[in-house]
């Protein structure tokens, strides 16, 4: 850090700086960056530098009553002034009055007070599959004004991007419960990681506060596997294999034994079943229509949205279905809804079956690209409540 100078020393540096600049002919002038950018000047360059500085100071004296309004600058205690004389950086000036030579000096003010900014909330996926909206509040200050000017062009933007990248990397490695319970520990770790980068810019971060705005998707505690819900499994297999046919001369019985026999691949399905001959019902239409008994007013109050499903059939055609959970007990059917849907979901027929059988989660389908959403993603993720109602 630059040591404060006396009034006489500051006036001497400002007025007769051309004498000090000639030290660069013998030794490097302090540039504050420490990269060797201010190498010793050659003798012709030193002479030109000193001559131009002397002429600038002479012009200042000749026109002093007028040039004083432009050459004298007031630097408050909380600021420092970085002066460039003929392109070469000088020691920080201030606080107090600083004298600039006309036409050859340029300057930049640096505020040393503590400042703050917020990292805008962004959607992140934790280690256990939860989706949450997280932001952060960061307080920082400049401890070396020369480094802050010489190393980074836009200090605020660079610091904000560094904080956001550090926050993203730290949260991707942790589950949701750890993020909620150890926010102070994570904030301290972020403070150290950000300071490792910003100290080289002459900036020091004093405080980082992590803010979890909302949890958009609960964590996936255990993947859906062989222990699927029996009701949903039988429902999907029923419409996948077609209408349930009774055994020879017997009446159809929807028990578990019939379900096991129906999915057997050893015996191919008969092309005709007596007098009852009807075209096979599409899988998507059967699955969505079968949701009607599970709809309720409680589910409508919990979700409160209208969905349109554009299902791509195996033949390549696209069929539209709707699930309206805005009024009454809700309804589901073929076609488009009466009003404008809140979310339009596009997926394949096989993915729809996997979704209703809980072999696929809405978030996992969206992240893998098997589920395309047009509209609010948070509203689309409320389909998880519909799947829970099917248990």
UniProtKB/TrEMBL annotation:
GO biological processes: lipid transport
Transmembrane stretches, start-end: 51-72
Alphabetized PANTHER family for the sequence: BAND 7 PROTEIN-RELATED (PTHR10264), STOMATIN-LIKE PROTEIN 1 (PTHR10264:SF130)
Location (main, coarse): membrane
Keyword field contains Ion transport: no
Record keywords, A-Z: Cell membrane, Cytoplasmic vesicle, Endosome, Lipid transport, Membrane, Phosphoprotein, Signal-anchor, Transmembrane, Transmembrane helix, Transport
Localization terms from the record: Cell membrane; Cytoplasmic vesicle; Late endosome membrane; Membrane raft
Topology of this chain in the membrane: Single-pass type III membrane protein
GO cellular component: late endosome membrane; membrane raft; plasma membrane
Band domain residues: 70-235
Phylogenetic lineage: Eukaryota, Metazoa, Chordata, Craniata, Vertebrata
Family indicated by similarity: Belongs to the band 7/mec-2 family.
Name this polypeptide is given: Stomatin-like protein 1
Protein origin, superkingdom: Eukaryota
CDD domains: SPFH_SLP-1
Pfam families recorded: Band_7 (PF01145), SCP2 (PF02036)
Keyword Transmembrane helix carried by entry: yes
InterPro entries: Band-7_stomatin-like, Band_7, Band_7/SPFH_dom_sf, SCP2_sterol-bd_dom, SCP2_sterol-bd_dom_sf, Stomatin_HflK_fam
């Amino acid at each position: 850090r630059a040591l404060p100078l006396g009034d006489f020393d500051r006036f001497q540096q400002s007025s007769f700086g051309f004498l000090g600049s000639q030290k660069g002919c013998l030794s490097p002038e302090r540039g504050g960056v420490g990269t060797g950018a201010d190498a010793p000047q050659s003798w012709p360059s030193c002479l030109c530098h000193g001559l131009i500085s002397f002429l600038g100071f002479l012009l200042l004296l000749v026109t002093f009553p007028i040039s004083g309004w432009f050459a004298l600058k007031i630097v408050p205690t909380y600021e420092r002034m970085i002066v460039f004389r003929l392109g070469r950086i000088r020691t920080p000036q201030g606080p107090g009055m600083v004298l600039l030579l006309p036409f050859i000096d340029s300057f930049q003010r640096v505020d040393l007070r503590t400042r703050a900014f917020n990292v805008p909330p962004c959607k992140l996926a934790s280690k256990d599959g939860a989706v949450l909206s997280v932001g952060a509040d960061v307080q920082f200050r400049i401890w070396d004004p020369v480094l802050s000017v010489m190393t980074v062009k836009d200090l605020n933007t660079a610091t904000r991007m560094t904080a956001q990248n550090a926050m993203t990397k730290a949260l991707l490695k942790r589950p949701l419960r750890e993020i909620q319970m150890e926010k102070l520990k994570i904030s301290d770790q972020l403070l150290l990681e950000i300071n490792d980068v910003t100290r080289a810019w002459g900036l020091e971060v004093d405080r980082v506060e992590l803010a979890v705005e909302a949890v958009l998707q609960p964590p996936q505690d255990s993947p859906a596997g062989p222990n699927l819900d029996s009701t949903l499994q039988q429902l999907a297999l029923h419409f996948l294999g077609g209408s349930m046919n009774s055994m020879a001369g017997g009446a159809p019985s929807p028990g578990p034994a019939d379900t096991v026999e129906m999915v057997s691949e050893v015996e191919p399905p008969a092309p005709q079943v007596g007098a009852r001959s009807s075209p096979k019902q599409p899988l998507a239409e059967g699955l969505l229509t079968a949701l009607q008994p599970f709809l309720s007013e409680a589910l409508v109050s919990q979700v409160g949205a209208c969905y349109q499903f554009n299902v791509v059939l195996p033949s390549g055609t696209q069929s539209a279905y709707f699930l309206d959970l805005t009024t009454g007990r809700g309804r589901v059917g073929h076609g488009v809804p009466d009003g404008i849907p809140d979310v339009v979901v596009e997926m394949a027929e096989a993915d729809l079956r996997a979704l209703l059988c809980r072999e696929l989660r809405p978030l996992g389908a969206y992240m893998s690209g098997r589920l395309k959403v047009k509209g609010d993603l948070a509203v689309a993720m409320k389909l998880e409540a519909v799947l829970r109602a099917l248990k």
